[in-house]
Amino acid sequence: MNAVTVHNLCKKMNQFSIQNVSFQVPSGSIVGLIGENGAGKTSTIKLLLNILQKDDGNIIFWEDPNKDFIQVKDQIATVFDQLAFYDKLSAEKINHIMKHIYTSWDSDYYFSLLQQFNLEKKQLLRQFSKGMKMKLNIIIGLAHHPILLILDEPTSGLDPAVRTEILDLFLDYIQNEQNSILFSTHITSDLEKIADYILFMHNGKVLLQENKDHLMHHYGIARCHHQQFTQLPKELIFAYQQKNDIYHVVINDTATFEEAFPDYVLDNLSLDELITISIKGEILP
């Protein structure tokens, strides 16, 4: 089952548009959403959350086309990169507020997570560091037991130790195979650690949705000169970028490539290089 199925989603916004975007978030998985600034990641999330109204296309939650976002919103939690609470509140006061908003709000679970992440329930938010605020933001999202967590840059600007704590929390969350995460971030190393699928957007379009393990093990980066590049079959090339006299080529089938071109230099793929080469170079249709 898919927690979310998006089909041909379209939205025109001034000089930018979301164009026929289609993807899935399978239940029990973490889908990492990548792309440069302005690729359409946040706009896509806002369309999912009904913050923006789509022009066309379908958004289906849990494979029930008869349910719109309003009917399923209590089963969804969204975490953006800012904590949307007045800074003179405490975590304890937030509990009083949220238990009147969500019928499924679990105060015991909320306070246990505060304790787990060493957050003082009576301390004012204005005394929290950025990392503490983000941890609280995620805890608030989890405390009403959603089955879909949508994250927009939740680990941006955090130190590695805090990011590791948060990533471990996400992994714990999806141990219940009903739960799913759509995770938009520029920190691709986080996705290399925990994502099950990678969704790559550019200029309002989906360039790629692929199982992460398949992507990391069956895609690679070939480095070659012009004459060598001209010998490569187009069907093996996802994208390429020329830097001086060297071509950096994203290969989509490393086993076939290594058999056919054993003398070429072939490196492991990183998500950062996938993004850079695709955006600054050329993508083959």
UniProtKB/TrEMBL annotation:
Signal peptide: none
InterPro entries: AAA+_ATPase (IPR003593), ABC_transporter-like_ATP-bd (IPR003439), ABC_transporter-like_CS (IPR017871), ABC_Transporter_VariousFunc (IPR051782), P-loop_NTPase (IPR027417)
Keywords, sorted A to Z: ATP-binding, Nucleotide-binding, Transport
Residue span(s) of domain ABC transporter: 1-228
UniProt keyword ATP-binding present: yes
PROSITE patterns xref list: ABC_TRANSPORTER_1 (PS00211), ABC_TRANSPORTER_2 (PS50893)
Molecular-function annotations in GO: ATP binding
Keyword hit for Kinase: no
SUPFAM superfamilies: P-loop containing nucleoside triphosphate hydrolases (SSF52540)
Domain of life of the native organism: Bacteria
Classification via Pfam families: ABC_tran
Protein name: ABC transporter ATP-binding protein
Source species: Paenibacillus yanchengensis
